[in-house]
Every structure is written in C-alpha cells, then in structure tokens.
Automatic annotation (TrEMBL):
Protein name (database record): Phage portal protein
Record InterPro entries: Phage/GTA_portal (IPR006944), Portal_HK97 (IPR006427)
Biased composition (Basic and acidic residues): 390-404
Region (Disordered): 367-404
Amino acid sequence: MRLFNTVRRWLGAGATRVQQGDQTGQPDGYTQNAAAYVNEDTALQVSAFWSCTKLLTEVFASLPLGMYEKGETRKRIYDHPLIDLLTLSPNSRMTPTEFFETMQLNLVLHGNCYARIARRNDGTPVALWPLPAQNVQPELQPNGSVTYYWYHDTDVHAIADRNILHIRLFGNGLIGLSPLSYARNTVGLSLATENYAAKFYVDGGKPSGVLYTDADLSTAQRKKARENFSEVVTEKEESRRLLVLPLGFKYQQTQISPVEMEVLATRHYQVADICRFMGNIPPVLVCENTGTTTLGSSIEHILLGWYRLGLNPYAQRWEQALAKKLLSPADRRKYAFDFDFDALTRGDSKSQIEMIKASVGGPILTPNEGRKLRNLPPIEGGDILNPSPHEGRKATDKSVNHDE
C-alpha cells in the first residue's frame, strides 16, 4: 500500500487524492525551485502578499457573528452558551477579534486552521485554543476516523476529531490546499525581483562588468587590478565618483540593469498574480491602480463583488464548521451560525438613509429598526410595523364600502 501511494504521489493528483495516513495540502512532487526561498515569513515581506493576507484576515475578523433558530422566523439567539464563547471570550487569553484573526491568518496562508476544543464533562465547549497549522498533521485511520497530531516542542499530542475545530479551504475534504505552497514560485519571483533591485542600488546603481586589457598580466597583477577596482566600486561613497582606469584597461558591462529587465513591469504583474492566488482580490484593494477589474467600475461595486466572491466562501466554511464541531446533534437541527455582512454592504450615508426611508413605513422595517441601523436610540411607539401602502388602500376602500 505504501509503495502504491508513493507511485501515485510521483504521478501527481495530490490535490484531490484521499488516502489512508498523513494528509498534505501541498503540491505533489514539488521541490523548492522558486527564484528565492519562500516560507510564511519571507512571503509576508512581499507587500502585495502582506496586503492580501491582512485584508482577508482583518476584514473577516471584523464581521459580527450571530446565531439564529432555523425556520421561517430565523429568530436570533442571544442566550446560548456558545454565543458567549464565540463573541465574548474564546479563551482566557484572546478577544474574539484576536481569535478569529489568528485562525484566519493560518487559513489564508496554509489552507487550514485548527483550534483545540476544551470541553466540560458534559461535552459543552468552554474554550477554543488556536494551534499553528504547520504543527498539526491530520491522519486518516483505517476505520475512517481522523486523528490530529499536534507537534508541540518535543512532544506529539494525538487529538480526537471531535476535539479539533478544523476549517479548511478546497481540497480533498480532509485537508485544504495551501495558497502559500501553490503560490511559491510567484512569491519567490517577487522576492527575487525585489532583492535584485535592492542589491543593485546598494552597489551604487552600477551594473557589474569585466575589466579587460590586451596586455599579458601575471596572476599577481590580475589579482591586484581586481582588488583595486573592487575597492573603488563597492565603497558607497567612492562608487558615485568618476572611475579612471589604468592605461590599457577597458570596462565591459555584463549585468542587465533593472530598466532593461523591466523590473517595474514585473513587479506590477506579480501584484496581480498574487491577488489571483489569494482569492481573486481586486488589485485596487491592495493599492495597485494599474489595469482594470471585472468586478465593477465603482469602488462600491468592486467591494460588493469581492464580498460575494472572496469573503462569502470563507464565511460559509466557518459557519458550517462551527455548527458541526460545537453544536450537539440535536442543536445542529435547530440552530445555525451566520456572519453579518450588512455592515460591509450598506453603502455610503446617503444611500443608507435613502434605503431606510424607503423601508420604514411599510412591511419591511419598523422605525426603531431603521434607527438601529444608524446607531440611534429607540423611540416610544417605534416598534410597530406598518402595513404596505397597498394594504392600507385596500383597508380604506373596504371601510368606505361598508359605510355606504
């Protein structure tokens, strides 16, 4: 079986393969052949990768999380123990925002995030402790169950599936694919381009080259000429001065300058490429204003498109994982979680006021619900939902006919 799995790994198809044993979210047969060494620390030094990661992490962590009762009424639940756990104190060390940021950061980088679930004797969750994704290894057991191995210092802890909250990106259903691993070449090219440009300017902005002469130099003379020239070129203050070569020596440039390599164009392209890997983030959201986007012409349309195509899939994964791992089987049939996108999609103040005016006074919003959207206190008598104008006209017509 192990030999068969090894052969399949050589042949690829690792993204969708489900096999017994350790699971991986990295490309099969992948070696470190990127233009520069890439891990999460070096990748986050690329401004586009940092901005995309920060955007997906902080914006998602700012979404209000709620719980509601399934059915037509979708009644909001405020007194369930899990509400306090998820919205007040996930553990003794973190605020809810810090917890969701930590988890989401692991998810965005590695395609998976894990939290150890601490439970009371009756099984009720009382704390959620994030675990570094790179230190957790899911393993599919022969009986079909999954055991999570957490590598902590020199110890290895085996944790049962029910005691791990695991949110994963798309993959084989057991582990998500790692954006950082699959984008390694793209990120490596960005790092190499920046390193090349930085080294070029550190060396005084002069391309490297060779000295040549028609004279037949001895080994000692060649060494002396190389040392003298290198000393002048590498000294930052000296490198700005005019070079005077010894009689008979000529200089030939061998290094391509950043302009000739089109470094600027390469860096612009790498921003768009990183945005594609990170979930089709519109480049304008990471301060890249060149080119166009297919999500809309205005920033409002661009944001709405990104919320639906970029953030909403994350929200659905979170909502379903929270219900599956934290709710009892009976509660899963009764309750569900949801992240509130209203705060992100309300538009500007003028549009919001116009929407509230159109909704209040009919069967959509009460006056107090409209005031709540503007963070205003309720007023007396503001909880009455008025019928629609059409229903009001029908009632008036019936009253007139009755009087006749």
